[in-house]
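Troubleshooting log. The previous structure file for this entry was overwritten by mistake, so regenerating from the original sequence record. Sequence copied from the archived sheet and checked twice against the printout by T.R.
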Amino acid sequence: MRRRAFPYSIPHGNAAGNRMIRTIVILKRISQDAFGHFNATDGWALASHVALSALLAIFPFLIFATTLAGFLGADRFAETAVHLVFDTWPERIASPIAREVENVLTVQRGGLLTISVVAAAFFASNGVEALRVALNRAYRVEETRSIIKIRLQSLGFVIIATFVFMAISFLLVLAPLAFRIARQWMPGIEALSISIAFWRFAVALIVLVAGLFVAHKWLPNGKRSFASLVPGIALTIAAWVLGAMLFATYLESFANYVTTYAGLASIMIALVFLYIIAAIFILGAEVNAAIIRYREARAFVSKPPATRRGR
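Regenerated output below.
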């Protein structure tokens, strides 16, 4: 497919009020580049691939992580992991899936290095690979790294995420004890007490934002600064919140998945929700790529003609 040159010329005005017009023109062209590339490269189909891969990766990841945590003595890991994964989802969507996940995680398993646990780690990394494909497509880059390198990176992310969840589970267990000790020395600290549910949600949000930065920074091929990732990630978070609210309202007011899908209703609701989340995630990367292309085009135009090279 022939790559379309990014339009970088901006009409100039001679009044301060034209700044708003220029901003609107810039936003329009960035949006056209982002949405145009999303549609031209089958972004909707790729979103369904990411959604299904994410749903299929949740159970293997939590099985592997819970087994590893149990081997290392983190007995309360399962409860913390479920909260970290599902606390940012609307309750109507998260409750049935979280309940099934808890049922799966309470099953006792053998040793750490059984075939099933190793396979769980591998299948969990498939979710990371789906994100990599989507991000490479959105950032307009070809994957040049070896398949062994990227697969090891995906497995490394699964293991790192496991240890992060374990650390958080320890902190959430120790936090009430630390607060009780601090209250003995500083009685006035009771005014600062916040429910554990709030802390779980806050920690889940922090983990989510950190995970987005890690994914955008290291999963796709090429190099990008952290600053260049902020617009798309901020847009992703805002659109996720709005999308989750609208979808939850839709489920409460209009949808009746039970009559259509019967016992599969909860799975179908989760899959549709993940599809919306995946499409927004890919569009966030598309926006970052469009902004990077716009800045590169402006920098190219601002160079003296003698120093320019073909784009």
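Residues 21 and 262 are 52 Å apart (CA to CA). Archived copy saved in two places this time.
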